[in-house]
UniProtKB/TrEMBL annotation:
Superkingdom per UniProt: Eukaryota
PROSITE patterns: IGFBP_N_1, IGFBP_N_2, TSP1, VWFC_1, VWFC_2
Organism: Pachyramphus minor
Entry's Gene Ontology cellular component terms: extracellular matrix; extracellular space
Ranges where the IGFBP N-terminal domain occurs: 1-75
GO terms classed as biological process: cell adhesion; positive regulation of cell differentiation; signal transduction
Keyword Secreted: yes
Pfam families in the cross-refs: IGFBP, TSP1_CCN, VWC
This protein's name: WISP2 protein
SUPFAM superfamilies per UniProt: FnI-like domain (SSF57603), Growth factor receptor domain (SSF57184), TSP-1 type 1 repeat (SSF82895)
Amino acid sequence: QVCAQLCRRPCYCPWVPPRCPRGSPLVLDGCGCCKICARRLGEPCDFLHVCDQSQGLVCDYSSAPAGTGGTCNFEDDEEGCEVNGRVYRDGEVFQPSCKLQCRCLDGGFTCIPLCQEDVRLPTPDCPHPRRVEIPGKCCPEWICDAQDQQLLRDARAVSPGLPYPCQEWGTEWSACSATCGVGFASRVSNQNRYCRLETQRRLCTVGPCPALPAAFPAVS
């Protein structure tokens, strides 16, 4: 009945077939009459405007109001996953953003980062590294504050002969954290390149720990 209402005989098709976007092949419409561009994943479809069956797509009417068209989607019997409103086939690799690469697997998906998650420790030439977003680049990059570089140059210019460019201030070293064996002691001091108060630690040893009784085997 639907075919009789929508399909006219004989066929009247345009002389020149339509030019399809990349990834959309020419196929016969639902009446088997004229060539049209196959609808792709997520595009609207109906009886006449068919989906690309070579990609395993069918016209899904499950979420469409009665009497309206559907949306091209994968068949229900095929495992897939939905990310940001788009459905991917099982095993398909995709990038939801330039920073992630994901793989659809058994109804879910796993992702790996495409940006390096390295950690940059402070160094004398870059004491306070920061990771910032660079316009035009996907992954953030490490930079050094220009203010810190200027402070270092100014401090060296004021007191070039001292190991640190300020008068020493600090607390006494604390007691060792361990009652035997190796521990650490801490203090607050300003003896650093920028004369900033910071907590410093050093190793300490009070004495050797007593040996375990012979009844207890040594644990490596």
